[in-house]
Design a protein that fits this description.
Blueprint lengths: L1 H16 L1 E11 L7 E6 L21 E4 H13 L4 E5 L7 H18 L4 E6 L8 H4 L7 E4 L19 E4 L2 H7 L13 E5 L5 E6 L5 H11 L3 E2 L7
Parallel strand pairs: 2-4, 4-5, 5-6, 9-10
Antiparallel strand pairs: 1-2, 1-3, 6-7, 8-9
The chain binds iron/sulfur cluster.
The site of iron/sulfur cluster has 13 residues, from loops.
């Protein structure tokens, strides 16, 4: 028994030590899955979808260096503050498969320890079968995934998806419980993104999956109040 516990602790420590490059992290975000969530954006994406609102996440050397352990501490703190889920987006999370797998394993362990049914959602621009199985298997710990490229010519009103081709797929019982009611649900009228003020008060960042034209409208409205939209490359 002691040996198993020791092995588990050693595996958790190895996971926590893994390096990962991230673009951003924020809690609470309420526009990327159900409830109040910790959102983590991985850095690096080679898919280059035309119209991507996150071009600043493309460069694999951009963002900042972190460890999986650091991200798990954010998750632990978010759980303590009532987080209902974790959303991992990017960038392309599958571009760092070892770190993604370790993050999901650790997040699952911490959720269990906290006795909470907080779900783990991952956005990937890939489709099943498009990447080697050893890469796709990094999603093993996810309760649900949103798959597929962002296609600017295929707008959608489906919640949490940026274009009509993207699929929301529950992968676990918890995922089915949390996402089953939302698979065909359309976004209600109104904003699809939330705002967070920058520390200097002069700007604001947007979080969520905007409708076509929403960011440009928002930018005009904020500019009228002397606030600029930041985030290095939100504009398509
Ligand atoms: S929309 Fe997503 S998958 Fe496509 S280029 Fe942007 S970050 Fe990559």
């Amino acid at each position: 028994m002691t040996g198993v516990t020791g092995e588990t602790a050693a595996a958790a420590a190895a996971d926590a030590a893994l390096p990962v490059r991230v673009a951003d992290g924020y809690f609470p975000v309420e526009t990327l899955g159900p409830g109040r969530r910790l959102a983590l954006w991985f850095q690096g994406c080679a898919l280059a979808c035309p119209g991507c609102m996150s071009r600043h996440t493309w460069d694999p050397a951009g963002g900042r260096a972190a460890t999986v352990g650091e991200l798990l501490r954010l998750w632990e703190a978010a759980l303590a503050r009532g987080a209902e889920g974790l959303t991992v987006s990017g960038g392309e999370p599958l571009a760092q498969p070892a770190a993604l797998a370790a993050l999901l394993r650790g997040a699952g362990r911490l959720r269990e320890r906290a006795g909470r049914a907080a779900d783990l959602l991952v956005y990937t621009g890939h489709e099943p079968g498009e990447v080697p199985e050893e890469v796709w298997s990094a999603l093993a710990g996810a309760d649900a995934v949103v798959t597929g490229r962002f296609r600017v010519a295929e707008p959608t009103d489906l919640v949490w998806r940026g274009s009509a081709n993207q699929r929301l797929v529950p992968r676990t019982a918890l995922g089915a419980l949390r996402y089953g009611p939302h698979l065909a649900r359309l976004h209600p009228p109104g904003p699809r993104v939330s705002l967070r003020a920058d520390a200097d008060g002069g700007g604001a960042r947007v979080y969520g999956v905007p409708a076509r034209g929403e960011l440009r409208r928002l930018e005009r409205e904020l500019a009228a109040g002397g606030i600029r939209l930041t985030g290095p490359s939100w504009r398509p």
